[in-house]
Design the sequence.
C-alpha cells in the first residue's frame, strides 16, 4: 500500500524492507511530483506502476492539483487517462 510520508516529502511503497518512492513538493492546492525511484531489486515487477497509481490516488483524495515534473509519473498518466483530470492547467 502506498503511503504519504510528509516528513520526507514523498509517497512510499515498501516491500521486502526496500522502499520505492515518488518525491514531491507541496504548495497550497498543488502537489508537484519531481522524481520517482524504484530499487533495482524491484525492476520489472510492476512496483513503479503500483507506486504511481497509489500516489495519484492519494493526490486525488487530497483534492490538490498535480504537476508531473517526474518523467515516469508523466508517462504513467499518458497511459492512464483516468488520471489526466488531476493535472494542473499550464
Sequence:
Amino acid at each position: 500500500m502506498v503511503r504519504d510520508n510528509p516528513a520526507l516529502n514523498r509517497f512510499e511503497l515498501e516491500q521486502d524492507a526496500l522502499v520505492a518512492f515518488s518525491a514531491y513538493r507541496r504548495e497550497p492546492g498543488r502537489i508537484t511530483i519531481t522524481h520517482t525511484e524504484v530499487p533495482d531489486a524491484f525492476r520489472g515487477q510492476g512496483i513503479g506502476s503500483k507506486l504511481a497509481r497509489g500516489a495519484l490516488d492519494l493526490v486525488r483524495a487530497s483534492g490538490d492539483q498535480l504537476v508531473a515534473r517526474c518523467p515516469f509519473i508523466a508517462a504513467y498518466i499518458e497511459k492512464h487517462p483516468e488520471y489526466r483530470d488531476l493535472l494542473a492547467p499550464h
Summary: Residues 12 and 21 are 4 Å apart (CA to CA).
